[in-house]
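In the current project phase, we have settled on a layout for protein records. One protein thus recorded is set out beneath this paragraph:
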Amino acid sequence: MHAILDHLRNLLSGDVRLILPQIQLVLFGLGILLTDFLLEKQYKSWNAVMAMLGVGFSGFSLWQLRGAIEGGDMVAFRASIITDHFFIFFGFLFLAATALVILLSVKYLEIEEEHHGEYYALMLFATVGMMFMVQGTDLIVQFIGLETMAISFYILVGFLRRDKRSNEAALKYLLLGGFSSGILAYGFSILYGLGGSTNLFSITSTLDKRAQSIAPAGDLLLLLAFVTVAAGLFFKVAAVPFHQWAPDVYEGAPTTITAYVSVASKTASFGLLLRLFQTAFWPAHASWQMPVAAIALASLTLGNFAAITQTNIKRLLAYSSISHVGYVLLGVVAQNDTGLKGVAFYLFAYTFMNVGAFAVVIILRRKGLIGDELEDLNGLSQRSPAAAVLLLIFMLSLAGIPPTAGFIGKYYIFLSLVESRHYWLALFAVLYVVPAVYYYFRIIVHAWLRKTTDPIAPVISLGQTVALTVASFVVLAAGLYPEPFIRLAQYSLFLPFGHLSGR
């Protein structure tokens, strides 16, 4: 027994320690799958408790790693993963999103009569995939992480087995997601051919030397690798023209999973995108700057104007999420510290304000009412004043109106564009706030000014109350006193290859 304990102690003090947060999530996920069949129907909520414990233990291990890397970044498993500030920041963001959605899910699943342990286990497995996406410095690790996340989401989107909309959404997501993964794998294979390795350290070094003999603008293989990798990742974040899946998937999926996909999948994919753009593709940054700017403007245009015509809240928020992708991409285009800090802050703020917005839709769900149409919000201020106030806060933040986190996020994106002398991009970014204000205020009008068509007040569970309270607190705190949250975003900027970008 002592030999086994010594072996485990030695194992956890080595490379394994750097992936302990993921290991704990996997163990709790497997534990949920093993114990779920022992629970009677009325005790299924214990699965959520176990999932929250998994998130808690993982967060504690992540916090310990935060202290361990104060002396410098740590690589492991032959430099296939790296634990740095970037990973710590995104890891906590993934865990926060997972915890919020778990809290929102208990009552929702009971109403849908689909309270199964696999739901929570798949959420934990998806979080594991997301963590490896941003921690990986090897193309294989990153791709396996992405597919772990994607496969979990394919199942979760279709979790309402008796709902045709959920089945259709899952099928569309699976087919289009598989296609995008194939394109991404093709791009990775080109990078492997160019760099002679799957390791980002080696690929970056080789491509940096290659750029000295072949101008990146004329390096067709590098540009082809960029186009294919970017296309695969732009699908995951729902950027135009790879956005077609988003409205149908958002509408058909369980609303809790819609909230989860809308923030977690996007945040993880942007984390992977930043890793690649700041390393392997940095030598060609002058060539991909304008195409990415065009994608950002197209996302802002289509997302904002398509959202105006929607009557389904989930579809409206789907199109609005496409416009938010445009803002984040503009921060990437700026290619300066302010832009990257703005991207980190924007993703942080978006996680809480978007989950909060969907949380209000979730509490409208009850037997006989799906609650995802604009008309379902009518008279919410009379039926549930607290929910109406929270909805107002989240809508103001999504629109970018002070004093909310959304305003600070947009401010840093605008500032980064001005500092990098992209004045025309900054002008368009500011102008597109106008249509956003219009369709977000449509939601507010239904909740505050329309007469109620449903006299029944929504019943909010304890878990949902906690999730809404946390989300609203962060959104307001980051808007009223942004300094600590800006420092948190600054914390994420220590990328492993930052010297290549001149920082």
